[in-house]
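Human: We require from you a standard protein entry with sequence in single-letter code and fold as tokens, and nothing else.

Assistant:
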Amino acid sequence: MNGSIKDYLLHFGRYFFCSNKTQEKVLSKVKKIIQKYSPDICCFAEIDKGSKIGNRIRQIERLVDEKYKYYDIENKYGQKSLLRKFPILSGQGNGFISSKNFKFKKHYFKEGTKKLIYEIEISPDLSMFLAHFALGKKTRAMQFKELEKIISRKKECVICGDFNIFKGFKELESLLESANLKIANKKTIHTYPTVNPKKTLDLFLCSKNLKIKEVMVLRANGSDHLPIILDIEV
């Protein structure tokens, strides 16, 4: 998908059936980005863990190789959610691959449909959190409050993912202030939609004392969101 209304209408069926040829084409583009920039960790929202419906392949395993041999993928819905039982939705998840064997754990929001939060321990003092936040503003606000409590136990942290802040950066003010965070992105560099970016939905929030070396939004057409890279000094 490229994020345009036309493309959503023309290719809506890909949510239910997407040919292996199309999936492999997109994964090839992702691999090229990974090979070019060689990040330590690659995080994914809305990646398929495979299912019996629609001939969907186990996408994250296509990205695993000798360098990136550590990975995990999990259904993005709540552990007791009925959505996990639907064949079409059972394979939809979040995940990551990494070049190092980082410790990680999974948290779950109480609010919202997409509840999964990954916590990846970069070092004893630094954790990275990956989440895909709700489409509804009220639910997002409750999720941000929940996240405040989860990260309050951490000395330093990075939060990444699709924040879906359609109402703008004001939505993050409480989280930023209470957790002593800063937005790493340039707010003027948008990440959605790919075809004509107008909104900054994909973010890195970092503890204020972390040294940010670079943040890049890449022009790539493998998804309806543009990929973003964070380089920090650890």
User: Anything to note?
Assistant: The chain has five helices and eleven strands. The mean pLDDT is 90. The chain has one domain: 5-233. The radius of gyration is 17 Å.
